[in-house]
Write a structure and sequence with these properties.
Length: 211
Amino acid sequence: MRRFLLQNFLYSLIFLLFVSCKTYRLTDVKSVSNSEKTVENLYFSSNEDYVYKCQMDIYKNHVSGILIIKKLNDATHRVVLTSDFGNKLIDFEISGENFKLNYVLADLDKKIVINFLKNDFQQLLKQKYPVSESFENEKSKIYLSKLDKKQYYLFFNKENGLLNQIIYAKNNKEKIDFTFEAKKHIFADSLNLQHKDFKINIKLFQITETE
């Protein structure tokens, strides 16, 4: 059964490569002067382990397991995904520039899968963002960060100052929507990662919380 699900996962990724994504534009916001030069996503900045229940929906397939994220140093995190029964599926170390694959289950050892995970976690674990423009609406302060052809829109709740959403776009096309729920600035209680050019959704739910 697990092999069947993994094969369907691969076929779905290949098929969905051809799905287009929409141009992203902010709506119902006003431009404000830049009060911040840099903003940060601190949800994975602690040296403690981040342990989540992981649910992935890929096209019509559902895969679940345990995801562990560990900060190794200022630039690098280690990410381990296991099955619900504790069998390791993939283990890698990642930074903004580097990717080291420590282990991958044979059924997952496909270039398209590795690239998909590499890109998603490089975006998720990115911490510092230089601010290009600032906006606000009724609920959020919004910061736009531009890096080459990439754009990041970071939404911070006005009431508690917590980061609750990152929109990642490339060439002005929306790629990934990261939505967070949190009570602390260094730990997200849950994360919803929604691809816009694939029918891929990853949900993380807190198992253990950092201090």
